[in-house]
Specification:
There is one protein chain. The chain is α/β, with parallel strands linked by helices. Helix content is 33%, strand content 24%. The chain has helices spanning 3-15, 20-29, 56-59, 61-78, 95-104, 120-129, 221-237, 287-295, 309-315, 318-326, 331-345, 350-353, and strands at residues 18-19, 84-89, 111-116, 136-138, 149-154, 163-167, 175-184, 189-199, 216-219, 239-248, 262-265, 268-270, 280-282, 285-286, 301-308, 354-361. The strands form three sheets. Strands 2, 3, 4, 5, 10, 14, 15 and 16 form an eight-stranded mixed β-sheet that branches. Strands 1, 6, 7, 8 and 9 form a five-stranded antiparallel β-sheet that branches. The protein binds S-adenosyl-L-homocysteine (SAH).
């Protein structure tokens, strides 16, 4: 049993089963034993070849470079002459930002860099990767100084805790029961169970109406809160946000539901309840939920996408960038570049599963942000 498993088992014994969100929060962010925050991973951390999962910026420098060019293009088009404030949520090993800053280069004269990161260990790694760029670290977006800013979040929202609700089998009254995590003393294992039934009307999302019995609906409350904060900030101060993650947009006629709660250890899927604190736990991102939360209450914000990462990177010129890198590369390097390109944009790799969404201030005009087309404008 992991130390966190013991802690959670004690808690459940005292006060009963806990929500998937409470479980996920403890597993990822427990100050002593959390996956990102604790000491369960004494090696180089969870991200990268030697860790548990490889993200797009860890796959190839091309990813961060193109994000950097997107930022420079957006800033020079709309905020030229002002110092750029660049904010990253959950910067991991700092690789995306290092590549982005290199691509931005001298096109921007003054740049303030703000990193929102909860993990002390990852902050150290970021400090090394970004030495020379003078980053300021924050525990949350709210403490980043006001003013126009570009906010980047790659594989950040998938790490925020979700709640799950299961539509009950009763045909007479539609009810939703929260999926909870319990501990079975006999087997020494965590198990799922269902909480009290709640009538349909307590869950107000219109997408519930089309669901089927037994179906799972997920909601990421912290994700919506942060999206709404981003929306308010951009509407008031200006700037834009670029959110990249695996997830789903609205599925016409169907609620965006399903159980997407998953765990990964050493690049393989495992049982999310098996080793609390030692596996990366994530859920797919509900992009429509984020877009609605961000644009609600402000007519000054437009959401674009979500569109497939493959399309976005191709529109930003990833093929040309790969060709440039190929020139002067050895044969082995060329093979690596081709493999990375396929991983980032291939339809069966990250190209279709990963989505990109932009949130932009509308008084910038109806200008389409780079990488998007007019028809990609989000409609709630
Ligand atoms: N963007 C990076 C890392 C993704 S992993 C990449 O693409 O490689 C998720 C990152 O989000 C980690 O840096 C993790 O420590 C951070 N994180 C998770 N929850 C967070 C929270 N609530 N606030 C700030 N950072 C968080």
């Amino acid at each position: 049993m992991t130390p966190l498993a013991q802690k959670l088992a004690n808690r459940i014994a005292q006060s009963g089963p806990i929500g998937v969100d409470t479980y996920m929060q403890a597993c990822l962010a427990d100050p002593e034993h959390g996956y990102y925050t604790g000491n369960a991973r004494p090696d180089g951390g969870p991200i990268g070849r030697g860790g548990d999962f490889i993200t797009a910026p860890e796959t190839s420098q091309m990813f961060g470079e193109l994000i950097g060019l997107w930022c420079a293009d957006h800033w020079l088009t709309h905020y030229s002459g002002q110092p750029m404030r660049l904010v990253e949520l959950g910067p991991g090993r700092g690789t995306l930002m290092a590549d982005a800053l290199r691509a931005i280069g001298k096109s921007i004269k003054r740049l303030d860099l703000d990193l929102v990161e909860t993990s002390p260990k990852l902050r150290e790694i970021q400090a090394t990767a970004l030495a020379g760029s003078n980053p300021n670290w924050h525990g949350e977006l709210a403490s980043v100084p006001a003013g126009p800013a570009l906010i980047i979040a790659n594989e950040f929202f998938d790490a925020l805790p979700i709640r799950q609700f299961v539509r009950s089998q009763s045909e007479a009254v539609v009810q939703w029961r929260e999926r909870l995590v319990d501990f079975d003393e006999a087997s020494g294992k965590f198990t799922f169970c269902l909480g009290q039934a709640r009538p349909q009307k307590t869950l107000t999302n219109s997408r519930f109406a089309n669901s089927r019995h037994g179906e799972v609906f997920e909601i990421c409350e912290p994700g919506r809160t942060i999206a709404s904060e981003i929306g308010l900030r951009i509407a008031k101060n200006g700037g834009a946000a670029l959110i990249i993650d695996y997830g789903y947009g609205a599925i016409p006629g169907r609620p965006a539901t399903g159980d997407t709660f998953q765990a990964v250890v050493k690049h393989a899927y495992t049982d999310p309840l098996a080793a609390p604190g030692e596996a990366d736990l994530t859920a797919h991102v509900d992009f429509s939920g984020l877009a609605n939360a961000a644009t609600q209450g402000s007519g000054k914000l437009l959401a674009w996408g979500p569109i497939n990462q493959g399309i976005f990177l191709k529109r930003l010129g990833i093929d040309a960038r790969a060709e440039t890198l190929n020139r002067g590369a050895t044969e082995t390097e060329q093979t690596d570049i081709a493999a990375a390109l396929d991983r980032l944009i291939g339809a069966t790799e990250m190209g279709n599963l990963f989505k990109v969404m932009a949130l932009c201030e509308t008084n910038e005009g109806n200008d389409v942000p780079a990488g998007f087309a007019m028809e990609d404008k989000f409609a709630s």
